[in-house]
Amino acid sequence: MRHFTSVNDVKDLDGFVQKALALKKSPFAHKHLGENRTLGLLFFNSSLRTRMSTQKAAANLGMNTMVMNVTQDSWQIEIEDGVVMDGGKAEHIREAAAVLGQYCDILGVRSFPALRDRKTDYGEKIIKAFIQHSGVPIISLESATLHPLQSFADLVTISEFKKSPKPKVVLSWAPHINALPQAVSNSFSQWMTHADVDFSIVQPKGFELSDQFTKGAKIYYDQEEAFEGADFVYVKNWSSYKNYGEVGNYPKWMIDQSKLANTNQARVMHCLPVRRNVVIADEVLDSKSAIVIHQAANRVFSAQAVLKEMLENL
Ligand code: CP
Fold it and tell me: Where, in this chain's numbering, is carbamoyl phosphate bound (predicted)?
């Protein structure tokens, strides 16, 4: 593994899940692997889980970590090539990435989409520029279109809670007040269609994800029909891919207990943060069905498995 930006960077998915679970059992077993190695974490956007879990994963492996909130702490970074830089942006990504590559052995980058222009967002300029110019392995901490560390943790969580070899997993659209990226949902779909699960997606018409990430998934437009017999219901809002960035006003798609009645006592998942009683009702989040904290805990071991693999290949 040179970079980690999608499921395609993982050769053996089941083996990788087992590696994360082994690290969960013995988090400090490879404490010397990261000695004298530095991880740089760059955030163009806010984070709680990704920031703290990746730092903890690095600490478990004995690495140093440096964290920077790019938009607040550093120079504003120009992304476009060939521009006359006579505006507010003082540093080009070509130099910024190359310099950070001198200080760090591995870099993690978080950069959300602007949700104004689909072609620009799906072009993934920032993560690609870091891969091109830093000279070190790059980990996506959530890009414009994918969130692989989250999806890996989700797959680890499903493997821990599944009651049958091939569980039924349903990704359900849910309401939100803001336009959110498709990254978590694209990524979850991409990982589930590569994993040994029976995978479906349910959303209102017009909220279909890009088919580059959903090949092999069953598609529904009715939650009751989709949830029948489900072992896992993964809840997430995403803005429209088709009418790019449209929010959608479907408050009845919120997940409450009544929605789970015909599932196979489904476990409810969400990447967090979650807006209570908008996306998921209190009665679900506060019940034993919800495994969202378990998911968040597994973010440490998914990140640790990725870092370990990269450190072993430096
Ligand atoms: N799920 C997730 O990535 O959380 P943060 O945005 O807090 O990092």
Answer: 47-50, 75, 110, 147-150, 271-272, 299
Residue list for the binding site for carbamoyl phosphate = 47-50, 75, 110, 147-150, 271-272, 299
CATH architecture of 150-296: 3-Layer(aba) Sandwich (3.40)
Going from N- to C-terminal start, the domains of the chain cover 7-146+299-312, 150-296
- By 3-state DSSP, what share of the chain in percent is helix, strand and coil, each rounded to 5? 40, 15, 45
CATH superfamily of 7-146+299-312: Aspartate/ornithine carbamoyltransferase (3.40.50.1370)
Give the per-residue pLDDT at 73.
86
Name the closest-CA residue to atom 3, ligand 1: 50
Residues with CB under 6 A from ligand 1: 47-50, 142, 150, 271-273
User: For residue range 168-193, what is the model confidence (pLDDT) as tens digits?
Assistant: 999 999 999 999 999 999 999 999 99
How far, in Å, is the centroid of ligand 1 from the Cα of 84? 35
Cross-strand pairs, 45? none
Flag whether the ipTM exceeds 0.95. yes
